[in-house]
Amino acid sequence: MIAQLSVDRASQVLSKLIRSGARITLERAYMTDISEATAKINAQENQAEVIGSMVDMMGDAPFKFLFYADAPSCLILTDLILQREVGLTKEFNIYVRSTIQEIGNIMASAVCNVFASDFEIAMKPTPPKVVHDFLGTVFQEFVMGTAAERDEVMIIESRFYIVRYDVKCTIYILPFPGSDKTINYICNTRLKGE
Amino acid sequence: MSDEKILSVGVGDIQVAKAPIIITTYLGSCVAVCLYAPLHKVGGVIHFMLPKAGPTHEGLILKKEKYADTGIPELLRQLKNVFKLEKDAFVAKIFGGANVVKSVSRQFGQENVEAAGEIIKRLRMNILASHTGGEKGYKIMFDLNTGKVNCTVFGGPPIEY
C-alpha cells in the first residue's frame, strides 16, 4: 500500500511536470538477492546509455530513490520541461542534466510527502546526484550502499509510459537497512487503523 | 562470438566456466578480477564491491564474494576445485574501480583496485592486463575461448585486453 501510494503520487507529479499523462505500466515491490538483481539488469540486451537521478531520503524510514530513462527519452523530457518543441534537444548537455536532476528531485519529494503527510514519518531528501552511464553501472551504484549491509533487499520498482511521446522511464525505491522497523510499525498500527 | 553462451555476473558474485562461454558484467566502483588458464581454456570472474570483509552495523556476515580479501581467494578455490587445476595455471586481469558517483568521503573504486592488486600479489599470481579508475562505468566481456577481455568504458570504443 505504501508502495502504491508513493508510485501513484510520483506518477501524478510527473504528469503535471511534463503536462502529459504518464501511465504506470509496472508496479511491484519484492525481496531480491542483490547479486541476482544486478545480474538480471546486466543481462538485459538494451544497455544503451541511461541518465539517472539518485536521491537519498533521510529520516525515520530512510530510502534511496532512483529515476532513470534512456538517453533519447531524456532528450524528449528536457524539451517537455523547457516547454519547447520536442526534438530540439539533440544531445546530452547541461539542460538535460538539470532536467533529470529536477525530475528526480521532484519525484523523490513526492514520495517523501506520502510518508510525511499520510504516515507522519519525518523524511528529507538530499540533493540529487545525476549519473550518465550504462544501465548496469547506474543500477549497481544505486544498490551499493544497501548491498554493503544486506545480501537480500526489498525493492519497489515502477515503470511509467508517456504515450504521446513514447517515453519510458523507471523509478526504484530501495529502503536502507533499519527502515523495515518503521515500515513494520506502519503496517502493524497505522494501516490497521489503530 | 555469436554461438557462445553468455553468463552475466552480478554484484558480489562469482562465475566460473570452460570455453565456449563469454562472461560479462558491468562495473562502476566495483572491480572484476578475471582469472584464466590459457592451456585449458577455463576461467572465472569475481565482481566484488568492497576491499575488506567485516560484519555490518547489524553484526551480519555477508557473502564472501562481495569483498576482495575473501572473494578473490574464493574464485581461485572454485576454479581449482571445479577444473582440478593448480594456481600456477592461471593469469589475472583487473577491470573497473571507477569513481562514478563522486564521493568526497571515500574513493571505493580506488580502494577496490588497490585491494585486488595486493591480494593477487599475495597469491603470487601474474596480472597480465588491467584497465581501472576514471569516472565512467565499464562493460567487460571475457571470452573463455581466447582469454581476451573486451572492455568498453562508457562513451569510448571497446578495447581488447
How would you sum up this structure, described in words?
The complex is a heterodimer of chains A (194) and B (161). In chain A, β6 (152-162) and β7 (167-175) form a beta hairpin. Chain A has 194 residues and is α+β, with helices and mostly antiparallel strands. The two termini of chain A are 16 Å apart. Chain A has 6 helices and 7 strands, in the order αβαββααββαββα. Chain A has helices at residues 2-18, 34-43, 71-81, 94-119, 135-147, 179-190, and strands at residues 23-33, 50-59, 63-70, 123-125, 129-133, 152-162, 167-175. With 161 residues, chain B is of the alpha+beta class. Chain B has one domain (5-155): 60s Ribosomal Protein L30, Chain: A (2-Layer Sandwich), CATH 3.30.1330.200. In chain B, strands 1-3-8-9-10 form a 5-stranded mixed sheet, with no helix packed on it. A 5-stranded mixed sheet of chain B has the order 2-5-4-6-7, covered by helices on one side. In chain B, α1 (68-83) crosses α2 (108-122). The longest helix of chain B is centred in the middle third of the chain and has 16 residues, at 68-83. At the A-B interface, α2, β5 and α5 of A face β3 of B.
Secondary-structure blueprint:
The complex is a heterodimer of chains A (194) and B (161).
Chain A: H1 2-18, E1 23-33, H2 34-43, E2 50-59, E3 63-70, H3 71-81, H4 94-119, E4 123-125, E5 129-133, H5 135-147, E6 152-162, E7 167-175, H6 179-190
Antiparallel strand pairs in A: 1-6, 2-3, 2-4, 2-5, 3-7, 6-7
Chain B: E1 5-8, E2 13-18, E3 21-27, E4 31-37, E5 42-48, H1 68-83, E6 91-96, H2 108-122, E7 127-132, E8 138-143, E9 149-153, E10 158-160
Parallel strand pairs in B: 1-3, 6-7
Antiparallel strand pairs in B: 2-5, 3-8, 4-5, 4-6, 8-9, 9-10
Helix pairs in contact in B: 1-2
